[in-house]
Design brief:
alpha/beta, 8 helices, 24% strand
Length: 184
Amino acid sequence: MQRVLAVDGHSMFYAQQKMGWFFDPRRLLELAAEPEGTELASAFWYAGLKDPSDQRPFRDALTSLGFTVRTRPLRELQPAGGGSPSEGEGRQFARANLDVEIAIDLMAVAHRCQEVWLLSGSRDLERLVEVLRARGLRIVLLSTDGMVARELRNAADRFVDLASLRPRLERSEALQAPVFSRNH
């Protein structure tokens, strides 16, 4: 079986913060290549950047692992209602909407895979998931409760809560014992 992996970095960063742990991209690639006989045809990571040098070491590491990294600059957005942050009506936030890039990449590789693992929570990807399923692809959505749009979750063939994958995905630094221990 051929599988494609697409990670919405922005969505996953906040999902991981909510869960209180971060996954290791290397472990994610290993999991996506299971069971034996599964070929990971493509792996994409999408990230918003403050400036061109933002997250450079992390992006380089992702590339060396085999991810195709797509980036866009973050844009400052005003709060709903148009009030300025200085007026106390809300706060500005930054967003780099990479949904179009995700859609283009997944449509471009759809002909050479049977399954897509999508790590996102964006409701804007619902239609993409519907179209990919109509083309015969199986869509596995990985996210966490409270951080995934109901519409996206309902459009996928299967939903996997990242919390259930913690033992398999958590960054190993978080699992290491402290260097100094009080018990000898």
